[in-house]
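Hi V.,

Quick status before I head out on leave. The structure for the redesign project is tokenized and pasted below; the design run finished overnight.
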């Protein structure tokens, strides 16, 4: 089984835009399709509350003709056109689809951040974890989110093995970003967020990239757009993950980043697992 996850940073821009960045995003979508994954997880879709428009669906059907679509968008009183997630899965699957409410603070449960697919022998779930915000304004809420999300995954894990992916908005260890020293209190690398991720793993989950690649350095999934040379210089962060229940870690064959060319921001991540 081959799965791919990508924070797309606006599905509309990627599907209908004609800017240089939109073209780069379209190239990444084509690259994803070349891998012929069974499931594609997309985060930060930024769609309206009523989801993809007719035009979006037509383009998606052209790009991914043999896939079904499940989406979760931000709804009021949360911000419009904010966050959001989407699954595309092969049409020979018939998973049960849920849109979990985990009891997170503020409007986080209304921001379209989680979708879960239940298959016969496992769960496949994706998340777009809330950012701690400028000046860490949302850090306290983010800490509560981490607690609630860990509880949610643990609950799934009591029923059947879990595969969890997405943009977790945290570089777990110093080796997960290029410049840990200058980012000590940056969103995504605070002690609080790192501890939240440690706590999640301690509940029975494996970071598949580290499981296969050990303490390799210099491999990242995100490069800041604001810094024009961040990708050229590989000044990146690894904040996108494939996690699995510990008891199926040995079934993982590949966990790696997919080359997104010159496009900055997130790059897709791939999991191959023998299920």
């Amino acid at each position: 089984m081959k799965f791919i996850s990508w924070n797309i940073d606006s599905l509309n821009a990627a599907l209908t835009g004609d800017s240089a960045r939109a073209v780069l995003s379209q190239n990444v979508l084509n690259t994803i399709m070349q891998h012929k994954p069974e499931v594609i997880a997309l985060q930060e879709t930024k769609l309206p509350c009523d989801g993809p428009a007719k035009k979006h669906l037509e383009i998606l059907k052209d790009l991914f003709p043999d896939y079904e679509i499940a989406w979760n968008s931000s709804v009021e009183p949360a911000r419009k056109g904010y966050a959001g997630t989407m699954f595309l899965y092969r049409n020979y699957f018939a998973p049960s689809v849920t849109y979990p409410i985990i009891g997170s603070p503020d409007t986080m449960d209304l921001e379209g951040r989680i979708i879960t697919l239940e298959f016969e022998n496992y769960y496949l779930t994706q998340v777009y974890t809330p950012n701690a915000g400028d000046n860490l304004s949302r850090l306290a809420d983010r800490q509560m989110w981490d607690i609630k999300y860990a509880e949610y995954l643990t609950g799934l894990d009591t029923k059947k093995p879990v595969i969890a992916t997405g943009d977790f908005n945290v570089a777990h260890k110093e080796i997960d970003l290029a410049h840990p020293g200058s980012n000590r209190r940056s969103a995504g690398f605070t002690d609080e967020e790192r501890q939240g991720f440690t706590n999640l793993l301690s509940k029975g989950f494996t970071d598949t990239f580290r499981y296969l690649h050990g303490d390799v350095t210099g491999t990242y999934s995100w490069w800041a757009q604001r810094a024009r040379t961040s990708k050229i210089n590989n000044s990146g962060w690894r904040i996108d993950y494939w996690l699995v229940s510990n008891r199926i870690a040995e079934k993982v064959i590949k966990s790696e980043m997919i080359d997104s060319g010159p496009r900055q921001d997130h790059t897709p991540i791939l999991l191959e697992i023998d299920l």
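Above is the designed sequence. The mean pLDDT is 97.

G. will cover questions while I'm gone.

Best,
W.
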